[in-house]
Every structure is written in structure tokens, then in C-alpha cells.
Specification:
The chain is mostly helical. It contains six helices and two strands. It has a single domain, classed as Histone, subunit A, CATH 1.10.20. A two-stranded parallel sheet has the order 1-2. Helix 1 packs across helix 5.
Length: 149
């Protein structure tokens, strides 16, 4: 990720939850985004198949009420930070059995952004006084998301 992208990444986490991350956290973050998008797309694919369709549409993705709220928070934040183009490059689409519609694919950066807001805020749920997440915080946060998504 370019230096400008790293700066936006750091600014995003400060804005979303008041936590300080650095370029060394970028790999963890990238792994998180790709893993959770993959999980959401797998369920979306199963939903499309169950509805006898051969393409995954945006409404097939299992976006919960809480995640939907985080998508809205991200969209408001992104007007200032402009992180969506970076997320578009960062989020690798996993190979699936079905195709993903252009509309669903274009929505993925915002979904990744919503997941990112939720990730940042989960650090504060785990430890309200946390300023800089360390490996243990990342691991615990990932465990929570793995239980729920």
C-alpha cells in the first residue's frame, strides 16, 4: 500500500475508534478484510444457489442490522477520508462457484469499510482504554468476528 494509503488507514482507525495503528498492522487488517469478505461471499453464494440463481447479488450478502449501521458510518466517514478506493484495491475477490454481479462487486468496498469500522470499534469494546492495539487485541477481535460472521 502506498504511503498515502497507509496514512489514510491510520487516520481512519483514529477517526473510527480513537485507536492508533501503523503500517505494521496493515497485514493483519488486510487479512481480516479479505477473510470476512470471503465469508460473506460464501454465504451470499449459498443464498443465490438456494434461490436457483447463478449470480450473487448484493441482497444475497448476509448484512446484519449492526453491520448495515457500520456501512452507513463508513460512508459518512469516507466522504472525508476517501478510503473506499484503497479498500477496492485491498479486497481480493475469492474464487467462487458463481459469478458476482457488477452491483454486488461495486458494493464490496463499502462492505469492507463497514467491517473496518466494526473492527476498530470492537477494539474499544474489548478494552475501552486501549490506545494502540497489539497482537493479542487483534487476535481477540478476530475471534469475535469469527464467532459472529
Amino acid at each position: 500500500m502506498a504511503v498515502m494509503g497507509v496514512a489514510k488507514f491510520e487516520r481512519f482507525f483514529r477517526s473510527a475508534a480513537g485507536v492508533t495503528v501503523d503500517k505494521d498492522d496493515l497485514k493483519r487488517y488486510s487479512d481480516f478484510v479479505n477473510s470476512k469478505l470471503h465469508d460473506l461471499l460464501l454465504i451470499g453464494e449459498a443464498t443465490a444457489k438456494a434461490n436457483l440463481r447463478d449470480i450473487v447479488e448484493p441482497w444475497d450478502l448476509p448484512v446484519t442490522k449492526g453491520l448495515q449501521e457500520m456501512l452507513h458510518v463508513f460512508e459518512k466517514m469516507d466522504e472525508e477520508i476517501e478510503l473506499a478506493p484503497i479498500l477496492e484495491q485491498l479486497a481480493a475477490l475469492p474464487p467462487l462457484d458463481l459469478a458476482i454481479s457488477a452491483e454486488a462487486e461495486s458494493r464490496l468496498p463499502v462492505v469492507a469499510g463497514g467491517l473496518s469500522v466494526a473492527l476498530a470499534r470492537t477494539f474499544k469494546v474489548i478494552d475501552p482504554a486501549l490506545r494502540t492495539p497489539h497482537a493479542l487485541h487483534w487476535e481477540r477481535t478476530f475471534e469475535i468476528f469469527n464467532l459472529l460472521l
